[in-house]
Amino acid sequence: MYQRLSEIKVGKEVIIRSFENDEIFLKLMEMGCVPGEIVTVDLVAPFKDPISISVAGYKLSLRLDEAHHILVEEK
Predict the structure, then answer these.
(1) 6, 14, 19, 32: least CB-packed within 10 angstroms?
(2) What is the 8-class DSSP label of residue 28?
(3) How far apart are CA 50 and CA 63, in angstroms?
C-alpha cells in the first residue's frame, strides 16, 4: 500500500513508487529522485513544513505540498 511522503515519520526509509504531479516529477528527476530510489526522512520542521530527506547520497528539502504528491512504499 502506498503512502504519501508527507505522512512518513522521521527516521523511516521508504521507496519512491510514483508521482501524482508531472511538475514535481520533472523537478525531482533532475535531482535524482526517481521511482525505485530509497529515501529517508531526516527532519521535519516544527510546523511540518519543510521536510528534509536523504536520497541518492545527498540531502534535499521539500515543501510539504511537494512531498504530498510523492507516493512511497515502506522498504
Answers:
(1) 32
(2) H
(3) 4
